[in-house]
Amino acid sequence: MKLTQSPTFKAFSEPVVKNNPVFIQSLGICSALAVTVQLNTAIVMGLAMTFVTAFSSLTISAMRNVIPRNVRMIVELSVIASLVILADEVLRAFFYDISKQLSVFVGLIITNCIVMGRAETYALGNPPVKSFMDGLGNGAGYGSVLVTVAFIRELFGAGKLFGFSVVPQVFYDHGYMNMGFMQLAPAAFIIIGLLVWLQKSLMRR
Amino acid sequence: MSDQLKSVAFTVAIALGCSLLLTGAATGLKDRKLRNVAVDRQKNILKAVGLLNSDKPPTLARIEQLYKDNIRCYAMDGAGRIVADDSGPDGLPVCFYVKDNQPAAYILPVDSRGLWGKIHGYMAIESDGKTVAGFSVYSHNETPGLGGEIEKPWFQKNFVGKQIVDGTGRFAAVGIAKGKVADAIPEDRQANYVDGISGATLTGKYLTGGLKDVLSEYEPLSQRFRTGRVALPAGS
User: Among A37, A93, A183, whose Cβ lies nearest the Cβ of B29?
Assistant: First the structure.
């Protein structure tokens, strides 16, 4: 069997493209508006999110046969919250500048419906490795949307990528201006809307 | 074991496991986190006196070294005496930029109201007690692209060389003009203002007020600098 056809790989690839959590399920929009002004913050947020979804799905799936049904939500939440705090601590210790810019949004991964949603609907009913790949895929799907939006916003809003100027000075000398609107949250809303449109029309083919 | 008891036991076990993991992480990373916070503050003080102007982000160790070599911080009263307590009107936190064992500039923490939240930063005044040596902002909630421009070098650069006294030597603070200084401000007051940010009149207004408050609070100290009566505190 080819690698791309194995169920484990499918668990990863499906949420990245076909069942993208942001585009199809409209989850995680709030943070997608907030952290996509710069590529740096978007990438770090995407990685933190992928880490949390992957390992929360893995942990919960590994315990799925022993978790008592009536307290499963509480258990899921403790696992997710611990992983989020862990991610936040690591960012504060090693990427202080970026963690300052992300401010509360790392902590708010807890409230991101993608994580809880995957734990409830997938990890509780599937084996650990598949759940881990599913979490990885959902995180990557979310992260890829963030990076795309951030690329557009940083390029047109500030003329930069990763904080380095990419729009040559000649452009500015001839009257080109950065779009301040791109730096505001509504711009991300519009970009995400257009991307959903693009993705849906591509998928229909 | 009854189902209920099992649920409780399981939840307690999970909570215990999670808290042990987090306690471990928090304790293990504590020193690094505290160092980051301290270095961030030092970085902004260095920025205010113009010691960090390269675009390349400096390493933690380099910032700490620069800070150690050039900056001394104290709590002082209006007469320039060191006091133990830096809260309240009798003790103000102030940092000196020390060059050849003489204070070349002094640095005040700025804590101002903004349009959407607090603006925090530092302002450095040269040892003549009149001329602004620099200004930096390290935290704010202003609108990106409008009021948020206060964090950009182009805006902060304009403060360098401005005066906190008017032509006759009386205290006047330094403010943000509504529009360009050359158009908005009469000629004899132009040294007390910097160019405003278009579309951010309110941010400018609040920051002007905040700077005035801070500078008048430190005015007794500035006066001592103007008359040349501030020496570097002994024993440092």
Answer: A93
